Known about the structure:
This protein is about 85% helix and about 0% strand. It is mostly helical. The chain is rod-shaped, with a radius of gyration of 33 Å.
Amino acid sequence: MRSLTxxxxxSFVSVAALSIAVLAVVINRAASIEFTSYLELIGRMQxxxxxxxxxxxxxxxxxxxxxxxxxxxEQKFLxxxxxxxxxxxxxxxxxxxxxxxxxARQIVLPLRRLTAATRELAAGNLKQRVExxxxxxxxxxxxxxxxxxxxxxxxxxxxxxx
Length: 162
């Protein structure tokens, strides 16, 4: 893989995907544990009600049986939670991809301009300079290139004058 743009995009998307996967596993596990605890609490409450009401028409026993296992509403809730996690993950990875492309372009475009200017300078065009618009490391490399080009042009002029 020789393209810095591709490397940056893959890096951003990989980090986002890994983060989403970890987050989804943690949320799914925590939600399942909390939901099960909630169902157990409801079951205990139903048991207490059954005891207080003296088994009124078997209502309490039926509710206990329903609360002990995951019924359709509970399964639907957990399914919706998992579906939400999947769609959130897809949206986040899409956002990470767009962000990665924009950031990679912002990093790689000045480097491509600098490479083209370096080739021009190597071919003998001593008036070649790069436009420096940033104050980061890439801007520093651009300023160093322009300084080098200025010194080469001065040395060439001195050589001709001699």
